[in-house]
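re: ur question from earlier - yeah i can do the single chain one, its not a big deal. heres the input i used so u can compare w yours
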Amino acid sequence: MILGPRRLALIAAIAAVALTIIFYPLIVATPIDVEKIRIEFTRIALDEDSSSDQELILRLTLTVTNNDTVTLTTSKIDYELFADGELVGSDTLSYEDIPVNGRPALFPGTVVPLTNTFTLEYSDEEADIFNRIMSNSTEMDWSIRGSATIASGTSLVVKDFEASVQE
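and the output i got, formated as tokens:
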């Protein structure tokens, strides 16, 4: 079997396409400056209509500020919630099952609010914090600690954060 010019051109074209697919993310990687991304804990409220004696529904809002020059998105935010310095629980705000074009867009210079519902179920171990939240959730010092997965078209970074509600 002789390799003619047509076959060589076809093999070269297939190799070029394969190499482009393999090396494209390395060539066009978008640098993300994680220091230019700020995550703040802006609001938490007890949903009294949905809460009961066995579970409390808390609605919290995080705001993500993108001071970078590229448009970003987030796929998930893992966090731990604290009330008066005591761990209430942990949760994940996830957009992983949503295609990239449907996730929250973090345009340069914008502030994007992200909301999540946190459910605290009653247990004997957490009865004290459960009752304190149920009786005076607005007077507690709320804080959050976690990490957010921030992505651009071809890059992915993890941003660790800590924040308190500023009211």
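The chain has two domains: 1-30, 32-164. not sure if urs matches, ping me
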